[in-house]
UniProtKB/TrEMBL annotation:
GO terms for cellular component: plasma membrane. This is Xanthine permease. Belongs to the nucleobase:cation symporter-2 (NCS2) (TC 2.A.40) family. The keyword Membrane applies. The lineage of its organism: Bacteria, Bacillati, Actinomycetota, Actinomycetes, Micrococcales. It is a multi-pass membrane protein. One of its GO terms (molecular function) is xanthine transmembrane transporter activity.
Length: 482
């Protein structure tokens, strides 16, 4: 308790309910926003360009996305009745929906995109309670596999940022990678040399230091900041009334199921990291917040919302488990959405600098998954098979991005998300191998059997080095005399 008081923290019953002074909340929240800001602005840029919108309308899509992400984060962290998980989860525009939205926008513009999102969001909201009942299908062997793949799936984003960002004319240059490495080095040095609050701000301080160095060397461009408006409210239905096309709605509903799967995984992951209880009711409340934000998004000119996995990694890395810190970050997003000039400053952070921070953040997500998998029992069961196959399927989109291209679009949409593919495979295999008891035998896994034999062999060698006799593994005869 004394340590909590010294840190300015008010400790309550649940770890996520910890409170900090306003200044600390604002700083911790800003660190969350700097971590995910690039991910929020990317989908509107991609979809707006695909729809052929002018630059001013694309800018409105970006501002609306920032504003909506802030409102969705506040709803998720603070909650209203049965809506909101009340966990330290940052909400933002989902990447999972980008390819589907781009395909729809290429044919008919943004109006059918918005119509499909509204209908799919309402469907997702209605089934949230039922979907959440599946939480019992996510034991540690499943959640650990999913969390690990979440981290691995995010690594290409960090590496692309480190190279200069997609579409950069200097993509992969030694200068870009050097700045990413410099930012990473700054973060590591701060983490190693300082303890307490300063160490917890290593990501934020690394981003600031990296950006200042990039600006001093002419690698950061703040010229567009002056062109941004000082204040602007996101207009309602700026792009006209949404239109509703059956094909677009079906495709978007499939995407929403993918997003719900990813959000469920993130809610369970943050529960593991924070060390708090997450049951089916809490998952359902979190999904309702996700889907409510998604259904309202098109009215403001924005797209589906989802929990941001990179911020799950930031919670794991910093140890700041307070949902109020993340709520403060949601407030920062709302302000950025109302003041485009402030958002323009944040958007000027060079991608290589973001990449250096992303390596630490996304890697920590994978590390959290590995930590969860370390608690799984691999003795006399097939859990090793579940983990190996689930992770292997999950990294297919990373290792071979075109692997699923020839499959039907609905199937490919699901499998192109390594997180969703891992969740499906892990859940199904866990049901078949662990829940269905008929036919189960001790030592069923050849992997666990081999591991047991290696352990026994190691024990035998240790005993022989001490001059003791022990049966040779796999043999019923005693070890031969020396």
């Amino acid at each position: 308790m004394a340590r909590a008081a010294q840190a300015g923290r008010v400790t309550t019953g649940r770890p996520e309910d910890q409170r900090y002074p306003f200044g600390q909340l604002l700083v911790y929240g800003t660190q969350h926003i700097l971590t995910m800001y690039g991910g929020v602005i990317a989908p509107p840029l991609i979809v707006g360009t695909a729809a052929g919108l002018p630059a001013t309308d694309v800018a409105l899509l970006v501002t609306a996305g920032i504003f909506l992400s802030g409102l969705a984060t506040l709803l998720q962290t603070l909650g209203i009745g049965p809506v909101g998980s009340r966990l330290p989860i940052v909400q933002g525009i989902s990447f999972a929906s980008v390819s589907t939205m781009t395909a729809i926008a290429n044919d008919g513009g943004v109006q059918p995109v918005f119509g499909a999102i509204i209908v799919a969001g309402v469907i997702g909201f209605v089934i949230s309670g039922f979907f959440a009942q599946l939480v019992r299908l996510f034991p540690a062997v499943v959640t650990g596999s999913i969390i690990t793949v979440i981290g691995l799936s995010l690594m290409p984003v960090a590496f692309t940022w480190a190279m200069g960002g997609a579409g950069s004319k200097t993509l992969g240059s030694t200068g870009n990678i050097a700045f990413a490495g410099l930012t990473l080095l700054i973060i590591l040095v701060i983490s190693r040399l300082f303890q307490g609050p300063i160490s917890r701000l290593s990501i934020l301080l690394g981003l600031i230091a990296g950006t200042l160095i990039a600006w001093a060397t002419g690698r950061a461009d703040f010229s567009r900041v002056g062109d941004a408006k000082i204040f602007s409210l996101p207009p309602v239905l700026h792009f006209g009334a949404p239109t509703f096309q059956v094909g677009a709605i079906v495709s978007m509903t499939i995407v929403i199921l993918v997003i719900m799967t990813e959000t469920t995984a993130d809610i369970l992951a943050i529960g593991e990291i924070v060390g708090t209880e997450v049951d089916a009711k809490r998952v359902g409340d979190g999904l309702r917040a996700d889907m409510a934000s998604t259904a309202v998004a098109p009215l403001l000119g924005s797209f589906p919302c989802s929990a941001f996995a990179q911020n799950v990694g930031l919670v794991a890395l910093t140890g700041i488990r307070s949902r109020y810190a993340v709520a403060a970050g949601g407030g920062v997003l709302v302000v950025l959405g109302l003041f485009p000039v402030v958002g323009a400053v944040v958007a000027a952070i060079p991608y290589p600098v973001l990449g250096g921070a992303g390596i630490v953040l996304f890697g920590s997500v994978a590390a959290s998954g590995i930590r969860t998998l370390s608690r799984v029992d691999y003795q006399d069961n097939l859990n090793m098979v579940i983990v190996s196959v689930a992770i292997a399927v999950g990294i297919i989109p990373i290792a071979a991005p075109t692997f699923w291209n020839q499959f039907p679009e609905q199937v490919a949409t699901i499998l192109h998300s390594g997180i969703s593919a891992t969740a499906i495979v892990a859940v199904v295999l866990n049901l078949l191998f662990n829940e269905v008891k008929k036919g189960n035998k001790p030592g069923a896994s050849v992997f666990s059997a081999a591991e047991d034999e290696r352990d026994e062999l190691g024990d035998t060698l240790d005993d022989e080095l001490r001059g003791e006799k022990r049966p040779v593994p796999g043999s019923r005869r005693p070890a031969p005399e020396h």
